[in-house]
Structures are given as C-alpha cells and as structure tokens.
Amino acid sequence: MGFSLDRVVPWGRSHSEYLQMFALTPSDLQLNLLDCASGPASFNAEMTQQAYRVISCDPIYQFSAAEIHQRIQDTYPQIIQGVEANRDDYLWRGEICSPAQLGEVRMAAMSQFLADFPQGKTQGRYIAAELPNLPFGDRAFDLALCSHLLFSYSAQLSAAFHLEAVRELCRIAQQVRIFPLVTLSGEPSPHLAPILSHLEQQGYQCQILPVDYEFQRGGNQCLHIIAPRR
C-alpha cells in the first residue's frame, strides 16, 4: 500500500525552534544539512532566505502544496482541541502562552513552508522520502536532524523500525541529532537504551544533551550521534 496523506497530522515548527531543539550553532548552520521527517516546518524556507543550504525529506512531499494545505486545515482543529484537553502536559511560556498562541505560531511556520514548497521542490530542496530507506549516498551529509518522529512515536513504531531508521541516518550523515527523547505521552522511550547500546558497540559516540527548549514536559534533551572516524 502506498503512503497516504490521511495518515499524517501535519504540524510544522519554525527556524527558531530548530535552533533551540537541536542546539544548532552558527558553524552548524554552515554544514551540509539534512532535515529528515521535516513535514511542513519552515526551517528550510527560513534557512534558504538566509543563504544557507538544507535538504528536507518527508513522504508528504509527494503531494502538492494545495493537498498539504487542505490536510493542515482538516487536522488543525483536532490538534488544538487535543492540546487544550492535555494542556498540563505542556509548558506555556515565551511566545507560546496558550493553545491559541501555539496555533498561531505553528500556522505561521506552516504558511511559510507552503509558500516556499513549490519552488523548493523544483530546486531539489524538498525530496519525497521516508525512513528507514533514504535515497542518499553514504555520508552525503555532515549533519542529519530528525524531530518529533523517532522516540516520540515509540508506541506506534517498533523497536526494529527505530533501530533501522537510526542506522540509516547514521549511514548518510557524519553526525545525527534526534529530538525529543520522550514519547507523545511524555514517558521515556523504551527504544532509546537498546539503540544507544547498539550504536556504542558499533563505535559511534553518543551523547544525550540538555537543550534550551521544552514545550512538552520532559522533552528537553537531544541525542547527538557522531560516526566513528574512518
């Protein structure tokens, strides 16, 4: 069965959130970057405006901007209702002090993505691809970023999938950063420890580092993986 847009709940984050989630430094931004499972985030659009180069990949990029926009409109109300019902699971501060403000920030990021997507797809900045099989060569990137997929969806995606996906990210990039490390319900992911053990046995350097970003309670750590020297 092919990938269906009906499976997706699009929810895009901004450039400033990426900087915080992944603790990206000015020198990191100069690297050859992959944003994996990026969805309708505005990171690529904003980076391109600043003359940086990012490749974003996600299976939703096989659809048109109009189709993605319609799916955002269809799912937005239920997302906000879900956040309202579970508002104690989140930290309300800074520019996001309420579910309504959260909606405004996310919609602004997704609108920026939608405006950039047609041109970016033509330019090869948005590529339709899905973990655990990505169409890139070994060490094609300096740094691969992946947010709100691995570990977040631990209940929905198996341990085997997680391991295969992380191994694929490590194949195509010298460094990998994954955020957050808790599940959608805020629990520590049961897949994290086995993956760390596997990677360390393979010679990878793994660090769990705190970041200056916490919206989901407990979601303030990022996994940094560095490939062994060849």
TrEMBL record:
Q: What GO terms are given for molecular function?
A: methyltransferase activity
Q: Which GO terms describe its biological process?
A: methylation
What is this protein identified as?
SAM-dependent methyltransferase
Q: Which InterPro entries does the entry mention?
A: SAM-dependent_MTases_sf
Keywords attached to this Swiss-Prot or TrEMBL record, sorted alphabetically, are: Methyltransferase, Transferase
Source domain of life is: Bacteria
